[in-house]
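hey so u asked for the seq, here:
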Amino acid sequence: MSKLSFKQILLIGVLIEILIFLIFYLLKDNIGDIFRYSARYSGRVSLIIYLYCFHLFYQSTLTNGSLKRLKEMVYIFGVLHLIHFCFLALSVYLNDLPIIPVKVTGGALAYLMIILYPFVINKIKKRSYHLIYFYYVGIVMLLTYVSRIKGDFIGADPELFHKIAFFVLIFCFLFYGIKLYKHRKNLLN
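ran it, structure tokens below
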């Protein structure tokens, strides 16, 4: 991905989201199911982009390098996750799913952070403060997978993918956390 430009990656990401929607538009008869599955699989795309962004942050911190590429990627993550949110909101509405305010509050804050972060990334002086974004957004994703594994999502049975995503997130939290702790002098700059 490092050879592709910002516009190319953004275009590819949006095309993937459109492709996901078109696939389920063709496969599913019920409009609620179209958006349910579109939300599910666009969320998986978001997870991959989030993990790549976390990796870019880790790399730039080790080298005390520029955050330019990270800024581009978190912007793309924001756009793609906003598309995911539209699919999700329409799925909730069309499938008449209950909204539990306590559970949605944490997710709403994560969405707000996802949208705002690309615009404030260069204003954050200490690299350690960036970890608030990466760990909070990641923990919200992790808790979503925990709920799915426990079967707490109406209309979405637990899948092997949810367990894999859970363990991948835990691994990344630990791996990057330990590595960044070892290079904490770079985080304090």
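The longest helix spans residues 31-63. The chain has seven helices and no strands.
lmk if thats what u needed
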